Amino acid sequence: MSSLQVQPVARRITAVSWLPPHAGSAYTDTDLCFVTGSGGKHQELVLWTTANPDFEQAQNSEGPLASLVAKVKHDGDARGIAAASSDLVATTSSFGTISIYDIGHTTAQDDKISMTLRESITAHRFANGEPAVGTALAMQPVNSSDAEVASCGEDGKIAYAPVARLDALQSFEVDSTVITGICWPTPSQTAISTRAGQVKLFDRRAPAEVSAVFIDPSNSYAFECITAHPSQSFRLATGTDVGAVLLWDTRNLKQPTMEAFNVHESNVWGVEFDPTDATKIVSCSDDATLAVTQWTSDSDGQGDSRGVRRLSNFFNVLSINCVNVCPFTRTSIVVAGSDGGNLLIEKNTSDDFKLF
Amino acid sequence: MSRKKVDRFVIMREKEAATHLSPGLFPAGTQNEWTAQNRTLTFTAHPLNNGCALAVAGKEPRERISKEKRVFEQDEKVYICRMESVPDERLPFIYDSHAVFMSLQNIMKAAALDFEDTGTERFSVSINNILQMSTLYREAMLRQVRVLQEAERQTEFISMEIDVFQSMHAVWHLLEIIYLTTNTHGLNSSIVPHFMGWLNFNFPAPLAEEGQKIVDSSSTADALAANADLWPYLKKLALRGHVSILANMLERLAPSKLLSAAAARWARDIARVSRDMPLGSDEETAGSFNARWRQWNAELQNVATAIRNLISEDEGSTSNDAALESLYNIVDVMRGDVDAISIQGQIWQDIMGAVLLYNEPTAQVDRLPALVGVVVEQFQTSEFSVLDNALVALLNHDLPEFLVYCNQIESWLSAHLADIMDHISILGICRRVFAVDPREYYLLALGETYLSHENLWRVGLDYLGMTNTSAGVLVMEECVMRVPIESDRKAEQVLRMCDKYRLKRAKDRIHRQLGRQKWQRGRFGAAIRHFAYVNDQGSIGQICDQLWNEYLESGKLKYGPVIDGVVASGLRHERLQFLTRYRDFHVCYNAGDFVESGKILLSILLSEIAPPYAIPDLLVDTIPLLEGDTLVFSSEDTFELLRCAESLLRNPVLLSSADTASENIDKSELSIFNVACARNLARSFVAM
């Protein structure tokens, strides 16, 4: 098992997201930024910066893995973070709210960067009026200022709200159990995973109606998270409560094909296709490990190279709650956060995969 | 109380006996006024941590007091009070040491399994691993000290924390060198180099800054000789065994014209002899080393005698050679003179180190109790700190007392020491002395402390779980059921812990609790899933009844998504099956597939999955099918329907309650049903 680099932060990190580089400076930023959300006793959002691994000197640099730039209090545990741009992030919280935070200089003359709450709205409530935990959040993949943010919660509802105008929030009850994850396979389609072990697809134009439901009839596990392939919208990946990562091919909506990779020993809290190499799925789990799963053979078809690379750190034995792979660098850089108060970073691109 | 408006109070502790809230909930001196207004305080303790909820309450029920007495707005608040038992600054250390603790338990478990399977030497296999873990614990302590020292704001609390962690390191390090480094099976090495390493690491003297300061301020030999701090510094170097630094300093000093010729000569000589101090090695036998040591000691003895003679000769003269006397003191310490060492040593650790180094350079751990007795005799032990007492107890091999003192330093220390002592099989003596198992006791205490911190519930449960005793399991079972479950993910994590430590009873209770909570919140699907885990058929039945009643009241079939979600997860329950089949009936009927819908309805009635109270409605649902243009039911089917109606009227459950029976069985509808059946029979016979 390979070792992750660890930076203790004394916060239970519950969500993480990379920020896009400033326009036109992709691949040239020497420092990359990401935002973490923490929960429990310390409910806050923190903006970090870390050296870009595309630069050689950055790889050899000593010192902390990431440096704190700014932090701000967050109402409730941050359960999902999605970046709309380099200066705007949306979060969902354990109090069922969707919030929008601005990132920028405090004043025009000031060098100091700060995060400020712009707007917040309660999106998830149970029938008896209690706030319901917002479980995940996803940003509509469109390059426009009126992009929508979709969140899901323990109340079985999906809420859609334009980032620029949260009060235009629409919410639809679509499941009787808990919705654990949400993603946008296309700008007009959302997919959710549920605790009842279902994947449901929705057309944004008819958001209350389920356009397709997928289950694995041979097993009765719960799904904990879902993600969509960055370029092939028919491919979805879900994480289960028994440690498996499932890869779905939904080209045939009536009979989707599914493949299971048993790469963890406990609940898979987060799953992502590696944006720099989508033949890999990165997942994090309650078993305190990250797994990088190579799910397809080499394009030249020579031999089966499918396998898994598991990453952990001796000093992190508690659940890894969230993971995000940076889509803006040539070198793969993964950031994750754990219950053990650690920020975990992996900049190694070596392919020491253990074949299936 | 509003979430955002949190009032802050300071909890003041006085002599550990009482805890005061400052300011109080009512102003000081207004007690009588409050009592007159029927107000008093009520509180309830937190089920898991050392906090409580406080509120103002009426002494008498409102009905019994006059209406004139006012109700105050501030009385409608509930105050949550909690004592912080785990400071945030400690969190990184707690996480790190928990990781090492869990790793150590896994190593011991694997070694035990290996021992059972292959019969290998368990002790010798695991001792190196334990030593490795012990080093990791120490590194975590040192890291914590470093982080605290680098903290931006140096408060009194931070400096106290630094002291605690340095004390913890000193204790742990000494235990490590006595029981893990030198006292291992089949290895009989001397404790002395390790003891000196421990001493100079944990109680450094003389400090490097002192030496640097002397060197910086004295660029020449003369300036060095004139420096007032020089000789105390050199004596400390000798006492702590830093002989090579001592030799360098003496050689640097010797050319000074301020020294007498004799002093300069002997400074050079002592430097030479210091460099020759024998050092033991693993290859050398004890006999050979002792011979070399005796020779070196004799040489020192000669030097000491020569210098003493010179000093005696000078006694009559007026010029007192202070340098020569200091050199004599240094040699006296190095030749192992206990009285000279006692005079030069400032703390007992200094004397213990010098006695071991110069008097008993090959001493093993079993000599420590005798030596520490002699050394400590010279001090007022009543003035010893807790750290001193703990170290002395450890050197005396008095492990029960040692553990008690360590617990006074820090509960983390006693818990982890008891654990590691158990793994190296030296806790047995404590078990005979203590009324309870010390490992279990200290681990439980530590685990419970951590449970009071929101972020550490899992760490706390691990400590409780790793006691591996029935008492530990009981405590853990009680605690795990009280862990606040704020989210579905946390519920999953708590249930995982139950699985990990095989807490079936707690797991069942948590599932029931979650099921009821979800039911209350109107999340029927999620509630059914939880009840299904504990096979609570009654509750699942009740939820299904509620769904059925909602359908009857609204006339709209809205429970489809609820049952789809839970049925998809593989759950089978008679009442759920009924609701599913009934939904299918409606789907077919609405689609105009009357034959199929009739088949479904009949199968529901014949398979007896429907609850008795739903049967009248099902029979009523058959009427449009019986009266429709299409022949849906055959003669056999119709007879079955009639049989169902007949058995319904004889159903003891429905008949036992006259009201229910009359409510459910509408006589006129039954008559219509009978007529419809008769007509359908006739049609079916014709169709045959």
TrEMBL record, chain A:
Keywords: Nucleus, Repeat, WD repeat. The keyword Nucleus applies. InterPro entries: WD40/YVTN_repeat-like_dom_sf, WD40_repeat_dom_sf, WD40_rpt. The keyword Signal does not apply. Gene3D superfamilies: YVTN repeat-like/Quinoprotein amine dehydrogenase. Its main location: nucleus. It is found in: Nucleus. Coiled coil: none annotated. One of its GO terms (cellular component) is nuclear pore outer ring. This is WD40 repeat-like protein. It comes from Coemansia spiralis. The lineage of its organism: Eukaryota, Fungi, Fungi incertae sedis, Zoopagomycota, Kickxellomycotina.
Automatic annotation (TrEMBL), chain B:
It is found in: Nucleus, Nuclear pore complex. GO terms for biological process: mRNA export from nucleus; positive regulation of DNA-templated transcription; protein import into nucleus. GO terms for molecular function: structural constituent of nuclear pore. One of its GO terms (cellular component) is nuclear pore outer ring. It holds the Pfam family Nucleopor_Nup85. Its main location: nucleus. This is Nuclear pore complex protein Nup85. It comes from Coemansia spiralis. The lineage of its organism: Eukaryota, Fungi, Fungi incertae sedis, Zoopagomycota, Kickxellomycotina.
